[in-house]
Structures are given as C-alpha cells and as structure tokens.
Amino acid sequence: MRLRSKLWIVTDEREKLFGDGPYRLLLGVQKTGSLKRAAEEQKMAYSKAYMMIKALEQRLGIKLLNFYKGGKGGGRAELTGDGLKLLEKYGEFRNRAQDYLDELFAAYFKEE
Asked: C or N: which end of the chain has fewer Cβ atoms within 10 Å?
C-alpha cells in the first residue's frame, strides 16, 4: 500500500492555477528548447500548450517563456528568469511536500 497525491496551486476562487501538468510542460521546454516538442512529449496539442502558458502568464502577472522565430531549423522557446524561478520553487515545494506526505502516510499506515 502506498500514497498517491496531486498538488495544485489554486486561486482564491479555487480555480486551478499551477500544478504537475504546467510544471512538466515547462520542464519540457527547458529540456527541448521548444514548446511544440514539450507539448508533443505531454501528448498535448501545441495550441492547448500555448494557451495554457498565456493563461498562466496572465493570471500570475509574469512572463514565463520567450519565443524566438527561426528560419530553416525552426524557432525556439526558453524560460524567462521568472519562469525558471517558478519552475525551481514549485519543484522544490513538490519534492518537500511529497517527502512530508510519505512520512505522514508511513506514520499512520505503516504495515505491521
């Protein structure tokens, strides 16, 4: 038996704002240098990924990605400084929260 959990940051109105989906998408952009490739890795349409990023930027009041148009090789995307900070903070928060939840779960449901 083990614990499975999902963490979301929500607005005061309880609307989902940021969680594992957007986190993985931004990680993918960081890894590939492309929102299109990051979206493909998540089995998500580029248009949906683009709209998700734009909605997040609007709600958070920060720019997450810079886009650069390209020639033959295509364009690229990279995280802004604020995008990197969000990625790092959420990643650390997620890991620490999961460690805490694992400890708490073990304290209550340790197999005897």
From this structure: C
69: phi > 0 → left, psi -120 to 50 → alpha, else beta; which? Answer: beta
Task: Identify whether the C-beta of residue 30 lies closer than 8 Å to the C-beta of residue 79.
Answer: yes
Inter-helix orientation angle 81-109/20-32, to 10°: 130
- The Cα–Cα gap between 54 and 9 comes to 17
What pTM does this model have? Answer: 0.87
